[in-house]
Structure formats: C-alpha cells, structure tokens
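Blackboard transcription, Thursday session:
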Amino acid sequence: MQAVPPDASDQPLGPPHDPRALPRQESQNAIRTPKTPRLRRSRCAILLPLFSLLHHLHAAAATPEATGSPTRLVLAGVRIDGIAHPLRASHPVRVPALAKLTEFTIEPHSESHLHTRWRYQLEGIDPDWRDAGAWMRITARFEDKNGYIIGGEEQTVSGQSPGWTGDLAHSPAVQKQLHLEVPENAQRLIVWTCTSGLPGIEWRSGTQPPLPSQKPGRILSPHPTVGIHALHELSAILQDKRPGSPPRRHNLIPSEGHLLDQLEGTPKGWARHGTSLGFAKIHPRSEAAPLLVLRDESATSFGGWVTAPALRIPVENSAAVTLEWKDAYSIGWAGPARIAYSYLPAGHYRLRIQPLTTEGFPAGAETLVPVQVFPPFHQTLGFQILVLSLGTVGVFLITRRVQRRKLHAEVEAMNRHKALLDERLRIARDLHDSLGSDLTHLALLSDLAQRQSRDATPAPYEQIFESAKSLTRRVDEIVWALNPAQDSLPQFIDFIANHSQKFLNSAQIRCRLHLPADPPTLPLPSPIRHDLFLALKEALHNIVKHSGASEVRLHLEVESSSLRILLEDNGQGIPPNATAGNGTESIRSRIQRIGGTLNVSQPPGGGITLAFQIPLPPAK
Amino acid sequence: MTPPPPSPISVAIVEDDPRVRRDLCEMLHTADDVSCVGTFPSAEEALEKIPNLRPKVVLMDIHLPGSTGIECVRDLSQRLPDSLFVMLTSSDDSEALFASLSAGASGYLLKPVRTTELLAAVRDVSLGGSPMTSHIARRVVRAFGPANSPPPPQPAGAPPVEGLSEREMEILTHLSQGSLYKEISDQLGVSYATVRTHIERIYRKLHVRSRSQAVALLQGRPLR
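(Written on the board underneath:)
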C-alpha cells in the first residue's frame, strides 16, 4: 500500500476549540524550496510587526518562511493521475481539467518535525478538518491451553471524542462495547490496547526530494499515529455456557497496583508493551481506579497496555464475552502522508495544513497552498463562445448553402427553360429559313407559270401562290411568337395591328386602328403573346368568314396592369339560330388560359364587339 | 400606270437562294421597261460589284449569309446616292424593316411576291414613290417622337436634324391608323401626289436622321 487513503478518518475532529477561531499566522505557499532560509520561532515575536510589514510589501512573492514563522509541514509534491506535477513557489497548484486523481504529498519540513501531529483541509471540498487517517485500537484475543491465539476481535478508535477538552479527567468519556463469541477450546481472554492502528505503513517519497534521513522506498513511518487515549472502567461480562446462569462481570482495571498515584504506576494484572513502553501511562484518581492512558508522541513508535497472565480471564465455561469500557481520546497523524482527491471539480481551492499538539490543539502557522482546477474545455467561456460562434457560423453556412442550392436550382430551371425556348426558336428559325426559300420559289414559280400558260382559268396557280404565301406567313408567326426578342408590349401591339390590317385588307375589309401612341415597354412573355395572338387571329377569321362586315375597328388600350382590346365589326351580328357561344368558345378558352376575360356584346348600331381584358405581368 | 421610260429600269438583285434569284430575274424580264443587270448571292459580292453597275434599283434580301442586307444598304446608299433600294424579306418584322428604311431603303416587299407587284414596286420606287405601310408609319412616328417635340440631343458638330413638320406628322398618324393614301388626301384636302411627296420627304428625313445619328438601330439585335 503506497498511498494513505485520505478519508480513513470516519470521525470528524469535533473541535471544542474551533481552530479557525484562533488567530493564525498564515504562511502562504509553503512549498518546499531547499534554499529558503528559516528563522527560529523565538525571534518571531520580536520581528513579527516588521515582517508583517515586509510581508505586505512583498505580497505573494515573499515565501512564508521568510516571515519567521517556522513551517512544520509542507506540500512536498503533487501527482496528477500518477504523474508528478511540477511545483512552483508562490504559484498555485494547477490541476488540469478532468484529472482523475489528484494526490498531495505532505511532509514535515524537516526531520525535527517528523513527530508533529497535523491535520488538513482542502477548502471548498472538505467541510471540516481531516487527518491523514491514524487510529488506535483495543483488542481482545482468546488463547487455547497451549497459549495459541485462536480468535478474537478488536475495535479501532480514531479522531477525537466528543467534548474533548485535552484534560483527561474532565473530558466526557464515550461508552463502548465489544461483543465476542467464545470459540471452541478457548481457555483465556487477553485484552490489550495499542497506539498503532496500523501494522506499519510503507511510505515512499516518490519523485519528491526525500527527507535527509530517507531514501525512497524505505519504510519511513510504521507507526504514524500520535495522540492520547484514556480508557475508563474496562470490564468483561461472561455469559455461561449453561442456560439460565446469570452473567458474571469482571472489572479489569483494579484499584490496587504499583505506584497508582503516579503516571508511571501500574495497575495490578497489567503490563506495558510496544516499542516505547513510556507511551502507556495511568491517570491516578483518588477515589477510583486509575485510567489506562496511551500518550503517543512519535510517528515512529508505538506502545500499549496488555493484560498480564494473572488478569487473563478463564472462558472455558463461557459462551460469550462482552467487553465494556468508556474512553476519551484525540488521535491524529504525524509524519508524511499522501492525500488524494478524485475528480476535483473545476474551481479555486486552498489546501490548509495545520500542525497540532499531541492533544490535538493548533500548534503553529498553517501552511496554505492555493489549488486551481481548470475547467474542461467544454466548460470554458472561450469554448462556449467558440461553440456559439461556430454554431452561428454553421447555421449561417447551412442556410446560405440551402439558399444557394435553391438559387442554383432556380437558375438551373431558368436555364433549362431558356434552353428550351432557345431550342424552340432555333427549330422555328430553321423551319422558316429552309421552308422560306422553298415556299418563295414555289410561289414565284407558280406566278411565272400562270403568266406563261395564258390559261383562261389560272385558279390552280393562284391557289398555289396563295398557299405558299400563307405558309410563309404562318411560319413567320410561329417564329415571332417564340422569339424572346419580341417579348415586349409595343412589339406585340405592332404585330397584331399589322396582322389585322393585312388580313382584313386582303379580304376587302377596312381596318381602323386605335393604338396607344407610346405604349409602355412592359414584358409580354411568349405564352401570353402566343395565346392572345391566336385568339385575335381566330376572331378576325370569324369576322371575315361570317360577319359580312365592311369595316373593323381595333382598339388597344394599356391600363395600369392590363391590356384592353376591343374588336368591333359592322357586320350582321350573331345570327338568331346560332348556338350559344358559337365560334367564341375556343377564343374564350385561350383567353382564360392566360388569365384574361372575354366579353361578347352586340351594340345597338349592329355588328359584334369582342372585349378582351388581359392581365399584364409586372414590369421587371 | 406611268408610260415606260425611254430606257429600261436597271435592277440588281441580292438574294442568297439561287432559285429565288433566278425566279426574280425572270419575273423582271417579263416586262420590257425593266431589265435585270446583275444578281448577287451575298452582301460582300454586292458591295464589290454593284457600284460599277450603278443600277437604278437594287432588290435586297434582308436575310443574307455574312453581312445582312441592312448593312449592305447602309454602305451602298452612301456610295450610290442615285440608286434606290427595295428590301425583300419573308419576315414581316417591323424593327428589321424600319432599320432597313433608316439605313437608306425606300420600300420593301414581303416574299413571296407576284410578278405584277414586283414590277409595280420597281416602277413606283424608280419614279420617286416610296410606299409606306401603316405599320412602318407607326414605327416612324415612334422614331421621331410626337409632333412639335424637340429633336433628340445630337452629338456635337453633327448637322442639325430636321424634325417632321406638322403636316408630315398628320399624314403619318393617319397612315398608322390604317388610312390609305387616297383616304388621307380626301381627309386632308390635298392631292394624292402631295401625300406621296410628303411621304418621300419623311423618308429623306429618316435617312438623314439615321446617318447623322450614325447608329445602327438594330445593333446587337438578331435578325429573323
């Protein structure tokens, strides 16, 4: 076992004197630095005001030893997750984020302080003082007829008894009990006390500079327990094997003995044991049996009381033994120790180390070492800002990407649409160009042939010419409707006016135009142009075919967001026997397809009026 | 019908399709007062050879491989101020026609054309008659702007451009609404010849205007 468990003490040091209430001479950053000069304690009182001033002047740069207060215990090393961590004087111990195990090695400043009892507290983590885990114990053992130990139990005692005053006679004692089953073949019960709760701890100095007397790996402190234990009124209650027999009580601390009025006295039936026999004392009492006292002042020795053979209790007829006693105590740790904390949360802490008297009272300046545990990266403000920023940037980028994709898709769709339109236009132009020459040739040829034939009936040549001519016009119209260069309102008005005039004039019908002088240059996409043109063309065709009109008026007006077209003829109107909507149904459906309306009426003067209302797309 | 002049009207043809070229030439030959003095398949060839021929009338196809008929007219009309240019086209595209007229053409014919129409047009134009259709009239009105409006700003040093007179604008407006020459002369109380003279003057102003502005009205715009 290499490390001393830091929380071995299950009993907090209940302070009758709150150590923190005492005036403290604090020594900052008592980290061992070999070159630090030390002043003797006696000079302290004289020099204190001066050093106090200097201390303030030098602030953190001044090492505590320089103020003249001897530091008995120092932080000699820190290991984080098993790896030695560099220590720097005047600097806090810096523990990286998410360290599993942080171990502080506390050592006496020099060998002369090896036996100084001390306690510690990591402020911010430990609610109270703690000691490094020493204890004393009371042991009961059964031996057989040959003197072999065949069973028994023990009870450990650690920390400080409640209401401890330091005065053995006046500190309240705690009632205790230990119940033992008597093993088979047990002959006698032996009882002893001991100041060493541990058989001996091997303490290694690790990577820190060892004390002058130590070498790493050597057993330094087999018996680090120091303190006082006072045992009152120890008795054994024997339960007979035969049922129904009353229990018998044996008082184990008699009032007679040797020199019972002195500390070095020995009650009858008891003997001293251990490496320091002097640790076992008595506390004389005038009218009662003395107390059995253990006073251990050494981190390297132990001692205790043990029942001599005369006081060994025969138990061969007993089924069970109950030991009863009272005790008052203050038990702590001396010498080096390693204290460990697992998973220290991020924060600023302070390790306090305080030297104590053997009785457990403050005995000098505390050693104070700031400890800073860094937060893991995800808890740092910088990281959170970074995450927030990255998140924002990420959201921004994703949004932009989505928008770009959308835009890209729109552009793609537009490009595809444009490519389609271009392709249609190209086909129409090719048709126009390749058909155009042939049709012209055909028409010209038919005209020439007609002249040369001198035929009385030139109708077939005339029909060929007219067919070729109308084919040429129709192909031209298709190209016009598909040409995006023609997609503005003035061009459309121009085209339909031209077409109406030519078409009607060829049928010997007068065409009157009422056109806006300067129509706005609004866009008029291909589908609207196409359907509107075909609708008008059909209307004109109907007039020529059915109306018998001699004159047609074409009114065109551009309103805020629509195109209004009136087509009036002076013909015979709708014949009475015509079916409803006859002739205008396909015109109406074309107009409705582009969101427009058609109103057919017969003015009193005769003829038919077609009123078209076409919504215009907004100007780009 | 005007009596035939002592010498036939010399006509040159610029047309890329050889059959149509031949047909047109043949059509011209059906009349004694018109003679076809040369046919050319491209603007480039026309520019090279027509100046030497000095024809009275040039029949110019708008849609030609290479340079367009419009560009060809613009060049030739500068070099041959006495020649008259009639455009031949199968597309009734008012912008292209207007550009041709601005470039120096005196009229146009829509393909296919009858022999009688062709000969009438040649004779008409050679006598100074420049027919103006309603839709070209509308385009001309747009080009000059409303009557009495100040002329558009001109480049410094350019000769001042004469705007249209009130009467000219009146005739153009009637024409653009679909009235015939005859109707216009009746309505305005002037002779048919006066209407024609006005139209001729409008053409001249249009040519001057387009030359002084030195802008190709169809620049960058695809021809059909």
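Lecturer's comment: Confidence is low (pLDDT under 50) at residues 147-151, 153-159, 214-224 of chain B.
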